[in-house]
Specification:
The complex is a heterodimer of chains A (about 230) and B (about 280). By secondary structure, chain A is mainly α. Helices cover about 80% and strands about 0% of the residues of chain A. Chain A is built from twelve helices and no strands. In chain A, α7 packs across α9. Chain A is flat and about 70 Å long. The chains are: A mainly alpha (about 230), B alpha/beta (about 280).
Chain lengths: ~230, ~280
């Protein structure tokens, strides 16, 4: 039993690596946030384009492609091929940049679908009322539909953010030292898994509060709905 | 209608679990029954499957263990060495299987008893020796710095602040970590580090000389600029609870050194005679 505890909780074995692990945490957080920004912005664009004219086929193609291909494969392809392309900015992308751009591109596809569900759930009456008031399609979307849609899909959006944060661990295969990469290197030398325990704790500390906040937002929405209030956008 | 769905699902889950768990158990089963084919010596060696030697190895790591394109058969210095030692009368095994495993998981796998042994260019280090047992040294290795031809880097001292590619979990990675201000990029297999060098993602690769030299000979764009004076010995890796196999391999290794088989294998893969014991491996 002592050996079990020692394998996962030997702080002396982990202590020399705490500085590197902290740097790894920071790398993970940065990639997660940057990728999420890209995914939220690009996802919204895709969701809106999906309802437009002929452009919607491009949007659908993008969404289906990035939902089908594993994120790991996307990252690897970008990493090993880009330096050989004679395209200015792309050939100089570092592993870190490919990390958040690649994950952003992949998750934009999932988030686009989440937005779509939200947009379609907003009552047609809202759109009709806005149009009859003289608002254009663009204004209707921007001022009436999307704000309502986004509130409804906060839970799945938060789920996708948590999934994205966990997928940041994939960058350890393109030589980016995130918290998982640092923990693995330490384990390969010391044969002790305490650094991996620290990585697990990091993920718990990072995502559990997000889940808790999410639950509170949902509960608050339910309370407001329950009281029969009209939810203004 | 709904009850049979529940029954069917439970049945599928039960079958799935049974198949999955029994597949994991395959390594232990079948060994005890098959003693007829093995010699008395082999039966004492504590092999997972009697009469067969299962060797974990990080393939590719040319020229020690790798495969030709289009083939799955392992070849290389380590492969020939293990087969030659296994063929000696003290061991007498001809069925040698090399099984591909990621380098940084091998030590743990051996300690857990998943394989009989490993031959994967492991440098003998005290940390590793705490987890597993090493054989006597079978190859003397040095670290090297490899760069793209025409690079301004002349040696390890020029690497300050540069980007260095290494393979995860290797002594090369440890050496790179000591270079001041250098950005160390750790890859899963050594070929990924070589690709990174070719792509310009790293300025140099720190890795065992023999492996880097093998790659540099075959490409115009790589050259070796430095060999690090620390000398390491490769050892074969055995689980701590099987000293019989390790001792048998030490005896076999001594035998093939004595009868010239070792020199023959060395010449085949490195094109020169092995250094005499005590000779400085850096003296060309």
């Amino acid at each position: 039993m002592d050996e079990v505890i020692q394998q996962y909780f030997d702080w002396d074995a982990a202590r020399p690596y705490l500085g590197d692990l902290a740097r790894g945490f920071w790398v993970t957080i940065q990639i997660a946030l940057l990728a999420e920004l890209i995914a939220l912005a690009l996802g919204l664009v895709l969701a809106v384009l999906r309802r437009a004219g002929w452009v919607r086929f491009l949007a659908i193609a993008y969404i289906n492609f990035f939902r089908a291909v594993p994120a790991l494969l996307v990252l690897i392809i970008m990493y090993v091929s880009f330096p050989f392309l004679p395209i200015p900015v792309i050939e100089d992308l570092t592993g870190f940049q490919i990390g958040f751009i690649g994950l952003g591109l992949v998750y934009a596809a999932y988030i686009a679908e989440v937005y779509r569900a939200g947009i379609e759930s907003v009552d047609r009456g809202q759109t009709e009322a806005a149009r009859s008031l003289g608002m254009s399609n663009g204004q209707t979307m921007r001022l009436v539909v999307v704000p309502q849609a986004v509130r409804r899909v906060l839970p799945p959006l938060m789920n996708d953010f948590i999934a994205l944060t966990k997928d940041v661990a994939l960058v350890s295969v393109i030589a980016v030292q995130d918290v998982v990469g640092v923990a693995r290197d330490a384990q390969a030398v010391t044969f002790n898994s305490t650094t991996l325990t620290v990585a697990v704790v990091f993920y718990l500390v990072f995502t559990l509060p997000l889940i808790w906040i999410l639950d509170r937002i949902i509960a608050r929405e339910h309370r407001r709905l329950g009281r029969g209030e009209i939810i203004s956008p | 209608m709904r009850r049979w769905i529940i029954v069917l699902t439970s049945l599928l889950v039960a079958v799935g679990l049974t198949l999955g768990l029994s597949a994991c158990g395959d390594d232990d089963s079948g060994g005890a029954a098959d003693t007829a084919a093995s010699t008395a010596a082999a039966a004492d060696l504590g092999l997972l499957e009697s009469g067969k030697l299962q060797v974990a190895s990080d393939i590719p790591y040319a020229p020690f263990e790798f495969t030709e394109p289009g083939s799955t058969e392992a070849i290389g210095f380590d492969v020939d060495l293990v087969k030659a030692i296994a063929a000696t009368p003290g061991i007498g095994i001809t069925d040698v299987e090399f099984i591909k495993q990621p380098f940084d998981t091998i030590i743990v796998s051996i300690a857990q008893g998943r394989f009989d042994m490993s031959a994967s260019s492991f440098s003998i280090t005290p940390e590793r020796a705490k987890q597993i047992d090493f054989s006597d040294g079978y190859f003397t290795a040095t670290q090297s710095v490899m760069v793209k031809t025409g690079s301004d880097i002349q040696g390890i001292d020029d690497l300050e602040g540069r980007r260095i590619g290494v393979q995860r979990g290797t002594t090369g990675a440890d050496l790179a970590a000591t270079v001041k201000g250098a950005d160390v990029l750790r890859y899963e297999i050594i070929d990924d580090a070589f690709n990174a060098l070719a792509a310009g993602r790293v300025d140099a690769v720190i890795n065992d000389y023999a492996v880097s030299a093998y790659a540099a000979e075959r490409r115009d764009d790589f050259e070796i600029v430095d060999r690090n004076p620390t000398v390491e010995n490769y050892g074969l890796v055995f689980p701590k609870d099987n000293p019989a196999l390790r001792d048998a391999f030490n005896a076999g290794l001594a035998e093939i050194r004595a009868n010239g088989t070792y020199d023959e294998i060395y010449r085949q893969w490195f094109g020169e005679n092995p250094p005499a014991p005590g000779e400085d491996p850096l003296a060309d």
